[in-house]
Every structure is written in C-alpha cells, then in structure tokens.
Write a structure and sequence with these properties.
- The chain is an alpha/beta fold.
- It has a single domain, classed as Rossmann fold, CATH 3.40.50.
- Helix content is 24%, strand content 31%.
- It contains four helices and nine strands, in the order βαβαβββαββββα.
- It has a six-stranded mixed sheet, with helices on both faces. Strands 1-9-8 form a three-stranded antiparallel sheet.
- Helix 2 links the parallel strand 2 and strand 3.
- The longest helix has 18 residues.
- Bound molecules: inosinic acid (IMP) and magnesium ion (MG).
- Inosinic acid binds next to strand 5, helix 3 and strand 8.
Length: 179
C-alpha cells in the first residue's frame, strides 16, 4: 500500500495537532448550544472520530451517506442520498463534518438540503480544502488545511475504496489511477 504513495502531505502528528485545535474552537463556539455533528460517509469517519474526542461539550452525532451521479472522478453536482440522517434536525446546531472540499458541489447540495429541515443553524467543518478547484461558492466555518490540487488518500480518504486506513494524508502516485 505504501508503494502507491508519492509523498506524505500531512503526517499523523500534524493531523492530530490540527484536529485538537479544531475541537477546542468548536467546544468554545458551541457552548450552551445544541450541537449535532453530521459526518458525511465514508470519507469523514476517521476525522469525525478523532474530532469528537477533542470536543469537551455535550454533542450528538449522526451520519449521512451520499453519492454523486455521473462521472466517477469528478462530482457532477447531482447528489443521491444513500443513507439519510436518523435524527430530525429541528432545534439542533448542525455542524457538517467532511473530509475534503473540492468543487464544492456535494457540500453545496447537502447544506441546502439540511437547511430546509429547519435546524437552529448549519455550519461546515472540513479537514481539507482544495480552494482552487471550487465550482460553487461554499463557506467553510472550520477548516484544517488548504492543499494543492492533487489527488490525496488516507485518514479516511479513498481511491476506489482503498487507502482509507492510512494514518496520514498522502499524494497518490498517478500511475495508480492512470493504469
Ligand atoms: P466536491 O463535490 O467536488 O467538493 O467533492 C468532494 C468529495 O470528492 C469528497 O467528499 C471526496 O469524497 C471526493 N474527493 C475530492 N478530492 C479528493 C481527493 O483528493 N482524494 C479523495 N477524495 C476526493
Ligand atoms: Mg469519496
């Protein structure tokens, strides 16, 4: 598996430091609120599980799974809900937890959908951001790292469902997806 990685972009230690920072900030900002973390499956699971342990105020969690129609490499913007939330959102301060923000199409869709369910508030926390590939404007309220426009895997992120279990974020060798 390690043979397929060109370089380590974010080490385990660097990720842990940033996640702790985000958790502390969220704990401060959501004091007295009714926090619900909504993880987008499957990419967010590693980030979500580390992040929630750094949150020191009461919180609930839920998950949602979406897939985009059309091309497999780039998002089409048309999103299908594969697994919806279990919890009705009324009264909650929803914080969407996402692995990476690329074109923004997926998150744009999800945010509008969740807003229509009348929560108290909806904000976004994304670990990674590729700011130069944005196709729609999406405001991130919390974000970990800006990264270059390269295909990355690990710490929950996959290529063809592989590499999610790598403890770091690394750049995938192009030969892996070009062959
Ligand atoms: P967007 O709709 O283009 O913002 O797509 C975001 C989704 O695309 C993420 O949730 C990831 O599943 C996937 N994605 C985008 N860039 C990468 C990458 O570099 N590695 C792995 N998955 C990615
Ligand atoms: Mg994915």
């Amino acid at each position: 598996m390690l043979d397929d990685i060109a370089e380590v972009l974010l080490s385990k230690e660097k990720l842990a430091g940033k996640v702790a920072e985000l958790g502390a900030k969220i704990s401060e900002d959501y004091k007295g609120k009714n926090l619900l973390l909504v993880g987008i499956l499957k990419g967010s699971v590693v980030f979500m599980s580390d992040l929630m342990k750094e949150i020191t105020i009461p919180t609930r969690i839920d998950f949602m799974s979406v897939s985009s129609y059309g091309a497999d490499v780039k998002t089409s913007g048309v999103v299908k809900i594969v697994k919806d939330l279990d919890i009705p959102l009324q009264g909650y301060d929803v914080l969407i937890v996402e692995d990476i923000l690329d074109s923004g199409l997926t998150l744009h869709y999800i945010i509008e959908l969740l807003k229509s369910r009348n929560p108290q508030s909806v904000k976004i926390c994304t670990l990674l951001d590729k700011p130069y590939s944005r196709r729609v404007d999406v405001n991130t309220d919390y974000h970990g790292f800006d990264i270059p426009d390269k295909f990355v895997v690990g710490y929950g992120l996959d290529y063809a469902e592989k590499y999610r279990n790598l403890p770091f974020v690394g750049v995938l060798k192009p030969r892996v997806y070009e062959k």
